[in-house]
Amino acid sequence: MECKPYQRRWRDWAVDRNLEDIWLARLNALETLDLVSVCEGHTDAKPTSVKRRPSVILIVKESYLKPLTGRWYEIKAALAGELERIWPGNDTSIELAIQHTLAREDGQRNDVEEIILRCFSSRQRDAAPFSDWVGRWFQNTVCRIEEYDRRFKKLMEQGVQEQCQP
Predict the structure, then answer these.
(1) Nearest to residue 92, comparing CAs of 131, 137, 39?
(2) What is the DSSP string of 38-89?
């Protein structure tokens, strides 16, 4: 694996140079979410590009996906409430999206479901050096994602228990 000049090696991945090992380890240790992408924000991107903003993108793990998609309309208000409670300020843009794609490609039918949690800093990187505010944003965001992971698991477990009641 080859790293670009702004990257370094972490385990088997090329990651942005300034991302701390502890953040990466914690994001990879979540119970209900899998890390898809983490970016420190890049000042060489266009001024209007989302790539200038620090971000973390995760998807719901397969074992939680079907139970959640089946109960999406029952539980989405609770999930939204947790997003509001855990991210009360305006320093982060949060999206929790459910995507269901039916496609036919090369004679094969594909049926793909994903639930994606996207966290983007509301502030763009404006200087090449890794600023203190970016480090604070990542530290806070990792803590908030961990809390959301715990709350999500608890909500899903409550739903399973409710379904099993006589």
Answers:
(1) 137
(2) EE---TTS-TT-GGGS-EEEEEE-HHHHHHHHHHHHHHHHHHHHHHHHHS-S
End-to-end Cα spacing for the chain: 54
Distances (CA, A) of 13 to 2, 7, 10, 20, 53: 9, 10, 5, 14, 21
Segment holding 142, helix H or strand E: helix 132-164
The per-residue pLDDT for range 127-156, each reduced to its tens digit, is 888 999 999 999 999 999 999 999 999 988
Res. 164 pLDDT band, cuts 50 70 90: very low
Q: Is 133 left (phi over 0), alpha (psi -120 to 50) or beta?
A: alpha
pLDDT of the residue at 157: 85
Six-digit token string for 8: 């370094």
The single-letter DSSP state of residue 90 is S
The pTM of this model reads: 0.90
Please indicate whether residue 166 or residue 25 has the higher confidence score (pLDDT).
Answer: 25
